[in-house]
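Hi all, a correction to my earlier message: I attached the wrong file for Cysteine-rich repeat secretory protein 60. Here's the right sequence:
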Amino acid sequence: MAIMATNAMLSLSLSICTFFIQTVLSSSTDSFVFGGCSQPQYTPNSPFESNLNSLLTSLVNSATYSSYNSFTIMGSTPQDVVYGLYQCMGDLGVGECRDCLSEGIGRLKSECWAAVYGDLYLGKCYARFYTVGAWGIAAKRRSPSSLDYLLVMGLLSSPFFMLS
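and the right structure:
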């Protein structure tokens, strides 16, 4: 009985991984995969909003030179500090990475307006911003399959697995 349950779990895991790999391989740079925003919001026209805008601009500008990066924009108080990161799949050139990220950041700005946490994964790029405390809020709502998808994306974007 235990062997059958183990085999069933292994089969399910392999099916999920196969689905994610097929989805990644067939995705265009602007295909929406998933996204999320926090319920807690910042005050409009606040130092946090200014820092967030600086961070999002830095993410897009950095994609001109690198397929992944992270930034921290310091504030005068801990509540004004904003963190962010992005990653593009390994088969994208920096121009395509920047275009994908620019599209993603644009969607984040409109979909997650005033949120203290937001993440978005398009077909070939991922971006996230957050502040102190918001990370735990969002991580608890994310399903395991989304985390698996990010792990697959990380694997596929590594120098050891390049798409042709």
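Sorry for the mix-up. The longest helix spans residues 2-26.
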